[in-house]
Every structure is written in structure tokens, then in C-alpha cells.
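User: Some background: our group keeps a shared notebook of sequences we're curious about, and every so often someone picks one and asks for a predicted structure to add to the entry. Today it's my turn. The entry only has the sequence so far, pasted here. Could you supply the structure so I can complete it?
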Amino acid sequence: GPECNIPLEGTTASISYHLHLHNHAYKQFESICCPWAGCIDGMLWRNVARHIKEKHLGLTLQCEECGRRYTRKESLTTHVQKCHSRC
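Assistant: Of course. Here's the predicted structure to add to the notebook entry:
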């Protein structure tokens, strides 16, 4: 679709809301192409907001112990439990 100049907040919920403002609404398990201008990646609609957050916005979470970066909270949590757990 056309490019949009409205800044996005870095949460999947706010990205999903923004996509709905542009009439991007599909069924969760419907396969689509990414609506980001110039992106041709295909995915399920339910994964679009996460894809935009990770690939197009480049948002990451950083481990406070070692500085390693992760795109998903679950991955950071698993890393901390496996690598930095004191128990």
C-alpha cells in the first residue's frame, strides 16, 4: 500500500491498531504479503505486527547481564534462565 508517515509505537498492539486504521484487517490465519512499503515477505496475518516490530522497526530487548540482544521477550527470558540463573 501507500507509504505512511505516522510514527509507530514499538508495541505489537499499537502496530496492529495502526494497521486497522489503514483498513488492513484479515483473519488471523490468512496468508498475506507484508503491507510495509517495499516488503514482499509473506506470513500469516496474526504475525504481521511482530514482523514489522522486529524487521522494519528493528526493536530489540537487551540482556542486562551480558548485553546480548533479542527480538522477542520469550527468547530473552529463556536466555536469562539458561545462562544467568543463580539457582
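Suggested note for the entry: The chain has a mean pLDDT of 88. The chain is about 35% helix and 10% strand.
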